[in-house]
Please model this.
Amino acid sequence: MKAAIYSRVLDEDQKENIQLFFDELTRQKIDPVIFQHFFDQVKDTINLPANTTTFSLSEHLTKDIEFIISLGGDGTLLDTVTLVRDKNISIMGINFGRLGFLAGIGQDEIKIAVQAIAKRSFVIDKRTMIHLDADLPLFGNVPYALNEFAVHKRDTAAMIKIHTYLTGEFLN
Model:
């Protein structure tokens, strides 16, 4: 089984739990595919499994990756969504940050969470992925959001025009 691992910057005091996480991946025979920037941060201080590989773009998340595990807070999990995009890969969030509404698994539950993935003993909480098409490149090549977009007017125009589609059909 392969799982992608995404994280932003983690604090020095979190290294012990990061090591625990990778040790449990090894015990459960889960091959990690680590986001390159995170890999560069931890490769000299964390003992990573020998079969570790890396990715740096959404396009590198191949079909054999069954899960992506986000290590951080809710902001990190939302960043993870922009990597997953429309690939239909399940995301698990382990809270190493401050907020944990989306990344609801605590650091004290790392072993249990990894074991649950290995046993496929979990419940998937469905979320709505939103894709935005606009005349202007508002979000570059990542026009995805989880649950909502915010629309702000830049000028004093009284109206803005939005065409909304749900599963390809115009929503009136």
Notes: The radius of gyration is 18 Å. Strands lie at 2-7, 31-35, 53-55, 65-72, 90-95, 129-131, 144-146, 164-166, 169-171.
